[in-house]
Amino acid sequence: VVRPVGSVKEIAHFSPVDLSRLWWAPSDLLWAQIATGEPFDDQRLVAIDPKSGRVIRTIRWPHGSLKDCQMNEDRTIALCAAETLTQSKRFVRVDLRSQRIATVSLPGVRTRALGLSFSQLTVRNKFGHVSSGFLALPEGVQANSGQKEPVPLVIMLYGFNRVFAAHGQWVGAYPVRKLVKSGIAVLLLNFPYAPSWRRGDTTMARRVMLEGPLSTLESAPQAVEEAGFRVGRVMVMGWSRGGLVAAQAIQQSCKFVAAEVGDPAAWNVTAYALENDEYRNFLTWLFGGPPVGRWMKNYLAFDPVPNGVPPNGPILFEYVARHPEEGQYL
Predict the structure, then answer these.
(1) Distance set, CA 330 to CA 169, 174, 237, 297, 306 (Å)
(2) What are phi and psi of 112, to 5 degrees?
(3) How far apart are alpha carbons 215 and 310 in whole angstroms?
(4) Nearest in space to 33 (alpha carbons), one of 95, 78, 85, 87
(5) Which H or E run contains 250?
(6) Helices marked H in 144-200 — which ranges?
(7) How many CB atoms lie within 10 A of CB 239?
């Protein structure tokens, strides 16, 4: 048995960070493929001096991400998949010394594009937490143009980043391109960064998982206004956790004229009764305990309609499977 010797120290601090790959270079550099932010939407290559802990080189793909990188033995060339929010993967050759990036043409590999352009917005909620969002506008709508008519806005909640997916990341039911072509602006809105909390700290759990995202959603139309656009009626669409937030928003706020709730996160009493032990452990961590006694109020805080009051607008429900626990939303 060989025991490692030495000490551990922090180098090149990023917060929050997702570290997917590491390579040691013969020149005694440490190359890393990292992503920072929330969600982790800015994937890139960085070279770190392990002695000083400083990042001495950063290589990015413009407006997108460098993913799934592989390097040659002497760590001078990397082959990566590069993609953006509106263009699918293409393979690129990265010269790690000159930092030049060149597209690699491969037979049978075709890049797809969505035919949309997005601008990135920053949204700050009442708790001071910052979220990113991607705004797509109808043709002819420009910032600070003195537009006479306000533009209707659909805010979509799920978790969006600078990578392409089969349906542009907004799930098959979210026809972003059709909405934009129909004269409706679309904002793909991310949740604020979710710090961890102590098990049983239900006040912080509600702040992080529900109240923070709700505040971000309510602040989003103002952020679009501040970017130079007159905003008209606003609808919210959400998937998974975004569906839970959308249901809460149309129930609690009068700022939205309608909501689409897609396969919402089942954080409720019915789910605790029907799901397995692993999911019950998650709900216990979220709510502090089972849905009895003093913990019941925490479950009700996440229930959009605990008192049976009608919502403030029409709702379209969408489910990908028959989940009895999601019937509680109905």
Answers:
(1) 26, 21, 17, 20, 12
(2) -105, 145
(3) 21
(4) 78
(5) helix 241-252
(6) 176-181
(7) 24
Q: What does the block give as tokens for 89?
A: 């993967």
For the CA atoms of the chain, what is the radius of gyration? 23
Q: Given the structure tokens 């999911």, which residue do they identify? A: 279
- Pairing status of strand 231-239 against strand 258-262: parallel
Place of tokens 């392990």: 50
Spatial separation of the C-alpha atoms in residues 33 and 47, rounded to whole Å: 9
Whether the CB-CB separation of 239 and 171 falls below 8 Å is answered with yes
Q: Which two tokens stand for residue 158?
A: 């799920």
At residue 191, the pLDDT reads 85
120-123 LR contacts (CB < 8 Å, sep 24+): 121/187, 121/223, 121/224, 121/227, 122/223, 123/189, 123/216, 123/219, 123/220, 123/223
Distance CA 233, CA 259 (A): 12
Both tokens of 175, joined, read 């026809």
Apex 203 CA angle, 210 and 132, nearest 5: 35
Yes or no: say if 240 and 158 are a contact pair by the CB < 8 Å rule: yes
71: which 2 tokens? 């390097």
CB 58 within 8 A of CB 66: no
Rounded to two decimals, the pTM is: 0.79
What residue type is assigned to position 239 of the chain? W
β-pairing, 119-124 vs 130-136, is: antiparallel
pLDDT tens readout for residues 92-136:
999 999 999 999 988 877 777 777 888 888 999 998 888 888 899
Of 117, 122, 132, nearest to 40 (Cα)?
132
pLDDT in tens, 35-87: 865 554 578 899 998 888 888 999 998 878 898 999 999 999 999 999 888 88
